[in-house]
Specification:
The structure is a single chain. With 234 residues, the chain is mainly alpha-helical. It has one domain (39-233). 78% of the residues lie in helices and 0% in strands. It is built from twelve helices and no strands.
């Protein structure tokens, strides 16, 4: 093909420079999402069991307080570990449903998603406990601090144990292990509270806050380790 023909073809099929190319490319980029928007986006992906336990605990506390059921406090204490287990089981949903590799290449990292979901669950249960503690305290004449300690200790113990178990091979291969652990803790709480209430009250009054602070630190540590090891679960 001679040079003249090439020039004529270039003229005939000349493609003009794209207009506003940079603006068009920017439109193709995903819009930046704020932290709050990201949290709201994760709410629908949290299992129904987490919300169900929150509603059950709140409803039980309100109904028990209104009906003056003296077992309300014990029931709430026993339900707290089951709620903690339901929250902890969020860790390996991707692993159990074979979605880990898919989620690792999505817009948000697995660590971010896991952190967001655990933050949402933590805030929800914190709100629930903040509502029921004053209600039961006023209705039954129990100190708010003592009551909060008695509810939070089994919740935090279960959370720490379940988070640790879910990181082990045993926990990953046994789907309901956390639920079993939570059930044992709940039964133990019911047994202790019915066996020697005076001893339990004195023990909580003396050491409750110290134990609670240590458990909060332990739960934060377990959450930190779990979040940092999230991608290793794949």
């Amino acid at each position: 093909m001679n040079k003249k023909l090439k020039e004529q073809l270039n003229i005939a099929f000349y493609a003009p420079e794209p207009v506003k190319k940079d603006a068009f490319i920017k439109k193709l980029r995903p819009r930046e999402i704020t932290t709050l928007e990201m949290l709201f986006q994760q709410v629908p992906y949290i299992r129904t069991a987490v919300w169900v336990f929150a509603v059950i605990i709140l409803t039980t506390a309100i109904v028990g307080a209104c009906s003056m059921n003296m077992n309300t406090e014990r029931i709430i204490e026993a339900l707290a570990p089951l709620a903690a287990a339901a929250a902890s089981l969020e860790i390996h949903r991707s692993h159990r449903y074979k979605m880990t590799e898919f989620e690792m290449v999505t817009r948000f990292s697995m660590k971010s998603v896991f952190y967001a979901r655990m933050l949402i669950i933590g805030l929800v249960y914190a709100a629930v406990f903040c509502i029921i503690a004053p209600v039961i305290s006023v209705r039954f004449g129990i100190g708010v601090t003592a009551l909060s300690v008695r509810i939070l200790i089994p919740y935090l113990v279960t959370t720490s144990l379940c988070l640790h178990l879910e990181r082990t091979k045993l926990g990953r291969t046994n789907t309901h292990l956390s639920a079993v652990v939570a059930s044992i803790i709940s039964i133990g709480i019911m047994w202790i509270s019915s066996y020697d209430m005076a001893f339990l009250t004195n023990f909580i009054a003396q050491w409750g806050l110290v134990i609670l602070i240590l458990l909060v630190i332990l739960a934060i540590f377990e959450n930190y380790k779990t979040i940092n090891m999230t991608e290793e679960f794949a």
